[in-house]
Amino acid sequence: MKRFDSAHKEFRVLLVYPNLHMILVPSTAIALFTRILKKEGMEVGLFDTTHYQHGDTISVEKRVETLQARPFNPEKDISFKPLPADQLIPDFIKKVETFQPHLILVSVVEDTFKQAVRLMNAIDDKNIPTVMGGVFPTSAPEVALSFPSVKMIGIGEGETLVRSIATSLRAGKSIERIPNLWIKRPDGRILKNGLGSLIDLNKPWPDFSLFDEKRFLRPLGGRIFKTVPLESYRGCPFKCTFCNSPMQVNLSKENNLGNFLRRKKVSRLREEILYLIERHQLEYFYFVDDSFLSRPQQELDDFIKMYSEFKIPFWFNTRPESVSRERLRELKEVGLDRLSVGLECGNEEFRQKKLLRLPTNEKLLKHFEILAEGGVAFSINNIIGFPEETRELIFDTIEFNRKLKGFDTLTISIFTPYHGTFLRERAVQLGYLDPKTFTTHTTSSSLLNMPHLTSEQIDGIFRVFMMYVKFEKEFWPDIERAEKFDETGNEIFRELFKLYQERFYKTDQDGKPLRYALPPQMNSTTIKHPKGDHWEEVFGPMSKTQMR
Asked: pLDDT, tens digit, for every residue of 101-110?
């Protein structure tokens, strides 16, 4: 490892953010590291891969193609110009050679790990100290270190680790005893340092200044806002078997570090909001908390009172059973513009026993009624293709969604077997998953090899899920045929797709004209049933009251 000459005062750190193409919300972790390192007087640079295209269809495009999101043109609507995939490695090498970092820090999730490895391979001969951290190295440290170009990883939280490594290297000191750091020696042995204390969530401040300003433009509900992510608490109180958040909680307990679930003081959150408003002239806050409403009631009261000072529109994710009429009304008054809630599976027994999500269908229906009447746009998260799930169980989820009213759209994900989750282990035990498998993203084809429900069958249901939920059952035979990826199935899908957009996506979430104009061929008078009948003969004239 090349050592830094401490006689020189300059110390440069390059932050590397491997990201899926078009995942637009800037990284909070990168912003926190930026502030920490700048405070130490270091020069900090960023290489962000968000603009680079990938070989497969990306998550954002898949959401549009499967009717989970309104159409938009990234280049025209948010000035997001994609870069060729083959330009990624040369651009990264050029960045390293021009910036000449003394330390490289890479933040990854499993979906971006292999991209990160490609980047590390490209500069492995430069012998620059490089540490890879994030959820994936924390959940599968030995797997991460099995790749030759991955020499050091950070496990657990990174704020203290980043500061310790950078200041030690700058001072010419050894980093071998730094908590949370694992180092692979030349002979392959691994030095495994234990975990240090959990951070005080009230102390670190984010600094998003290294991100391109265009990265803050975010389409939401058919509109575009300058959006900044905001973390108000870290961790999750729930134990969903498909999620890797419980892994973080368990890791903290096993190492006697205390409760991983921590929340910022409302007064401290106010200061951060003031700073972000002044620094970015933002239009929207995107809370990145796992379940925003899962906090003490007094704390919510304090938040509502505090946020009434700003009333900037905001979004959050939460559990449906945590929503009440009073809270929804109060939050709407201070700026709540949109929220996402997780149903995940509509079969009560499967959801409770296999996913450890305990509310009954009866209880969930009551809370969805509250959401429908609350006057706030919301989307519903669903997952299909779980281990042991059948086609019949997926249709239980479809039928449950059909009972719900008032939602703006649905988010459908294909089960992704992330390292550190119970259901990944279960899939391996059942022989449905090769233990060496890496995930791609939640809209990629299923990685499971289940004899009763193939990957292609899951893909087929995935692409027409919204149609099954929103269209009348007279169309179900055609929708089922559109599950097939052959010429006839694709043609039927295209016609159904056009009709769906004409019926449900001509306006934004507020009922205002959609800023993204639909192509002329999507005019309803030109759309015909695949069998030759006019859609209007089946549905009659379309009106707003016919839309869920």
From this structure: 999 999 999 9
